[in-house]
Every structure is written in C-alpha cells, then in structure tokens.
Amino acid sequence: MPTVKLIGLKKSFDYINAADGLDLEVHDGEYLCLLGPTGAGKTTALRMISGLLTPDEGQILLDGKDCAHLEVEERKAALLSQTYALFPNLTVEDNILFGLNIRGAAAEVKERVLINMLDLVRLSGRSDAFPFELSGGMQQRTALARALASGADLLLLDEPLRALDARLRISLRVELRSLVKTLKMTAIHVTHDHDEALVMADRVAIIRNGRILQVGTPEEIWDNPATPFVANFVGQCNFFTGEVLENEPYTVLRTKDGMLLKGRPSKLPKGSEAVLGVKIGNTDVSKERSGYMSAKVERIIFEGRNLHCDLMMDNGHRLSAKVPSWKRGKVSVGDKVNVSWEETKGAVFPMPAGGLEQELKVE
Q1: Residue-wise pLDDT tens digits, 218-237
Q2: What is the reported pTM?
Q3: Do 4-228 and 237-278+346-363 show the same overall fold?
Q4: CA atoms within 13 A on the CB side of 190
Q5: Where do the H-state alpha helices sit in the chain?
Q6: Residue 30 and residue 3: Cα distance in Å, rounded?
Q7: Domain 237-278+346-363: which CATH class?
Q8: What are the CA-CA distances from residue 166 to residues 16, 117, 136, 194 (Å)?
Q9: Alpha-carbon gap, residue 318 to 298, rounded angstroms
Q10: What is the pLDDT of residue 279?
Q11: What CATH superfamily is the domain 4-228?
C-alpha cells in the first residue's frame, strides 16, 4: 500500500490553472476523498497521479519515489473513471482479466484471480454476461474488479458513483469503501458530492481553483471549516458580517444594522471585520423563544425528515433553516419567527480578502 505525496503540482491548459501549487499527502491504506466543485482541478490531479497527464511543475511521490515522469504502467495505480470504460464486446470475465491477458499471465494465476474477484464483487453468477446486460451497480463492480485484478496498490476513483441512481449510489458507498478496506489498498476518490465524501472518507481534502484549502476527517471538515467557502460547500450556511466586539468566552459580532450576534471564541482582534457562519441545520426558528433576529417564513419545503424553511429578515437579508418534520403545522408560510443558534455552532472567520460574495462563489 503506497503513500502518496503531491508537492507543488502545477498544470495549465491555455489560460486555466487546473493545478496551482497543489500540495497533498495521502497515508498508507487511507481512503481519501478529494472534494470540490466542478472545474476545481479534481480530475486533473487524479490523471497526473495515474500518469495520464504530466505536470508542468512539482513532484508526485509514491512511497517516496518521484513518479511525475514515469509511464502509467510503472506506477501500480489503477484509475476507475466515471464511465467505467468497460469493453462492450467482452464479458465480465474477459473485462476483469484484460490487464492480466495483456501481461501474459499464466492460466492458473488468471483463474485464481478471477475466482477471487468475482466472489469479492459478488458477480460469480454473471461472469459470462456482457456490460449491456448488467445493471449500473454490476457494471461499477465489474470495473472495480478489473482495476483490482491489475495488481495495483493505489486505486484512483473519478466520480465512480456519479452515473448511478440515488438509491444504488447510497448502497454502493458502503460496498466500495468496504472492498477497498478489505484489500488494504490506498484510495483517492474524487467527488463533488459532500454527502458521499463525508460517508466514505477517512479524511477529506477540499480543493478549489487547483489548490487544497483544508484536509481533515469528515468531522473536522464539518465542525471546523477553515474558510467560509468550505463551510458553505460542505453543508449550506447562513452568513453575517460585522465588527468584532469581543472574542472570549464567545465572539460577539456587531452587524451594520446593530445586531449583536454570538459565535465561537476566536483570536480575531477587536474592531476587525469578520464573518459569522451558521449551518442551516444548526439554525433554529421559533414563534415562542426569543432569538437574535426576527424573520418571515417565505417558503417551506418538505424533505422527509426535515422541513427546509426559507426566511426573509426585515432588512431584506435572506436566511434558511432546517427544522424537524414533526414541527409541521407549528411553522407555516407567512409566520413571523425568531432565529437563533447555539454559540458553539457559529464559526467565525476573518473577512476574506476579496469579500464574502467572491469567497462563496462557485466557479
């Protein structure tokens, strides 16, 4: 199982910096999710690691050896693409054994690998089927078995669940992670779906504009985002800006409208401009309890376990909140509600250099 270390990777296409000084370390046996919006540089990073792209600058260390300019076959890395890239004229068996056939592996080796792989991905009864005869989940497992049968130590997954329906995608999250862990491989899984990343990853790396913004466990990324962009991308947030009045035991922010809002303690200097972010799931609305502000309920969307409430403050500022579905009927469109949150749930950030609107922009 290799460790992977990217140091200062750069890759440009015309005027687009797909990798702009990319630094990342993936531990031995780790399942790491590379999470970011479309165009952030996720697939470019994966293709450079696999050898399909050569970086303009920087190093790709696999177990300490710089592989930035090695051929694909010298890296012992298997890339599983979004489309699975199965050969339509080959059966499940022949697709799985394709790499071994190319290398001229012995018949007994191929037979042993095939039996193991079919059993592992639960396709023993479909070895003679062609891709068009398989469900999306079976195609995904076939492509995974082919990647694993190649003898790779490093598995590179480029949005492997993207083409599947929602129900199958959720069930295969667990299967895919379990398979990789059973085989004790190192995996880098690219996705733009934060739910997928939080469920599957040992650690999550947030990428934007070809740079890593934060790396941490799913809990760290969710609870302690490094920037307003990370906070909003991994779970929608309500944001407020203002001047720091106090920073212990809580940060107290005074907005331009004179509201006093509380968030976590911070080291921001008094008088500095700051941003307070509260995830909509931590934003509470009530007609009885007091809050930081009042707002009018403009819309309620039923989401199953939760109600998504869109709110409008008197000053025209829009907010959102999620409340449990059992509150149906207790909160209605047109109601005036008070908005509050626990101080420990309010993340506090220095004002981004380009302003909050630019910071939250998803290119």
Answers
A1: 999 999 999 999 999 998 99
A2: 0.88
A3: no
A4: 23
A5: 42-50, 92-96, 98-102, 107-120, 136-149, 166-182, 194-200, 218-223, 228-233, 356-360
A6: 9
A7: mainly beta
A8: 32, 26, 12, 14
A9: 10
A10: 96
A11: P-loop containing nucleotide triphosphate hydrolases (3.40.50.300)
